[in-house]
Design goal:
The protein is mainly α. The protein contains 3 helices and no strands. The protein starts with 17 loop residues before the first helix and ends in a 6-residue tail after the last helix.
Length: 81
């Protein structure tokens, strides 16, 4: 039988072991000391553009971070680089 909406559940005291944390993905392209946001920023792209971006494979996250960061610095932060 499904739980009623609003019913408490899940682990009230979650623990991440050092072994678990050590195996988590580390973003190699992020400078030391720079914190990444907890959630994701997502946007739908035109299919032809999405195909090209998705074709980057494992390089996609680093490429997207670099391109978006550069655009934000130029367009939203007054051209700082």
């Amino acid at each position: 039988m499904p739980k009623k909406k609003g019913t408490p559940g899940g682990n009230p005291n979650p623990v991440q072991t050092p072994q678990f944390i050590a195996k988590q993905f580390k973003a190699d392209d992020v400078p030391e000391g720079v914190k990444l946001q907890k959630g994701l920023t997502a946007v739908r792209l035109p299919e032809d553009i999405a195909d090209l971006v998705n074709g980057l494979g494992k390089e996609k996250p680093a490429w997207l971070r670099r391109v978006i960061t550069t655009a934000v610095k130029q367009e939203l932060m007054g051209g700082e680089e």
